[in-house]
Amino acid sequence: MLEGVAGWVPGEPVPNGALPAEWEVDDAWIRTRTGIADRHRAAPGMSTGDLAYEAARLLLGETASPGAGRGWTGSAGSAGSGPARAVDAVVLATATPDHLCPGTAPALAARLGLGTVPAFDIGAVCSGFVYGLAVCHGLVVSGLCERVLLVGADVYSTWLDPRDRSSGVVFGDGAGAALIGAGRAGDPGELLAFDLGSDGTGYDLITVVGGGARSRSVAEPSAEGDEFFRMRGRAVYQHAVERMTGSCRSLLRTVGWDAAEVDHFVPHQANARILRAVAERVGIGARSCVTHLDRVGNTGAASIPLALADADARGRFRTGDRMLLTAFGGGLTWGTVALRWPAATAPTTTALAVTTSAVTTSAATASEAVRPENSRATALDGRNGS
User: Fold this and answer.
1) Reported pTM
2) I want to staple 179 with a disulfide (CB 3.0 to 4.6 A). Which of 3, 226, 252, 254 is the partner?
């Protein structure tokens, strides 16, 4: 079961007008091509682990570090259940780990005071959060864990070539966290089904060539620029639209939903044109689409939980709403999950409309009626749903 979500972004917004003049782009040009107006950048010395820590603290009912950024915790948060009691595993989805070795998740778990719980990273790039939901679901239904903390976090600003405006205008830094716990089939928050895939023949479409074992295994020095993120935009666009569309259609058939029955469609926040193209091909109306990239840009594995936390904090979701989440990333990887939105919990703090502290908002209440389950939609494991 999905129990709650939270999101956190560092610093103040960086508007289109504040981007480097040498890129020769203006606000209208960027908005037209990407749909993005602002993005956030991590301060010097701030890493993926730092962003993940802030998002996790918010979700677990604690206060974000003062003066560091902005946070959102929706009405379906954990209501301050406390990290030591609430979590017995940590999964971090990221393409920008703090180090090549070791993984970042164990350090995150220790920093959160979770002791010796199992903790590991997932490297599925922008599909990481959806892949992470599937992994956490498996940990719970297997009986190995009762509640898992899943964090999607990326600091793409550390990867970007300052001369590459195509990536520079799109990517932002951020983190989103979710709690996955045990529950009963049919309850709000149930993760109904997944569709995951990959195509390694396209691994070179989204890359950071330098730094890994392959580049270190040759005697020649790395080529200039190999340390930076590269993406072949046109080919990625085509693959992203095709793969997410196919994955969504497949999963809708699995759970027995018509596209018109989807209350909220939450795609990876990569580019407004990609989002619109996928929604149109799947047959989902614009009103059902949840977008957040206009304010934060493409935040990689953090984009879906950030969008969920923001929309929930604004009161958009109701208990039991039918949700379809889909993503596409480097690898190539893609994935889709169908779920019911969880019941709300009582917020532990009042709303704070302050740019440097958390925003906690109560929307739907736990007493709201859950919509009847479609007779053809089935849980992945009716004995121990998650």
Assistant:
1) 0.86
2) 3
